[in-house]
Amino acid sequence: FPVTIVRNKPKTTFKKKEDIQEQKILTYPKSDEVELAVISNLLRHSNNINLAFAYGIDVDFFYDEKCRNIFLSIENLRRRNVFIDANTVTDNMKQVGNEIEFDYVLGISKKSLIHSDELKEYLDLLSDLKEQRKLLSMINKFEEIAMENKNINEKLVSINNEMGKINKKDESKVLTQETAGKSFLKFLKDSIENKGSNPTPATYRDWE
After folding, report:
1. Model confidence, pTM
2. Of these four, 21, 114, 117, 122, which has the most CB atoms within 10 Å of its CB?
3. Calpha distance 161→127 (Å, rounded)
4. Which positions ≥6 away from 157 have C-beta within 8 Å?
5. In this predicted model, what pLDDT tens digit does every residue of 151-191 receive, in sequence order?
């Protein structure tokens, strides 16, 4: 059966780098024709709804926002055992703040895009497209994580280099502080051992 699959749906993200915006285009495979055909079948007959849900259909089978919203309404009505048609779907969508036109939903329900016997094949196709989009989304996330890790590593290297410079400059000071620290600990130990006597107030010179 002839199906049009669109792979040029752009999703644009921007990241700032030296005040220059770099554009990255992500393309996700989808088929408006198949999505509308499946929605049309779901609106026309309860048997189609039962078949689709037995198959394992979910909202991510659909990429188009209107198809997603219509499906969510169908899913909600089915859960409540409410009769499903263009009227109940439109009313349900308006109840949740989705102002979709009744004529639009009715028009979809009247489209004779596929026969009910072909529904399974179309669900197979939507399932495949869903998995492709999921994979592309995961790849994009891995790329973002890799970029973030690269930036973090660059910052850590920079900080480490700066710390190395500071340590070289203040090496004698650091050694003096370490020596003074050991002397102070010895002073505390001696003070504890001499507890009960009347020591004079401690000063820096006492433990230097």
Report:
1. 0.61
2. 122
3. 51
4. none
5. 766 766 676 676 666 555 555 444 455 555 566 566 656 66
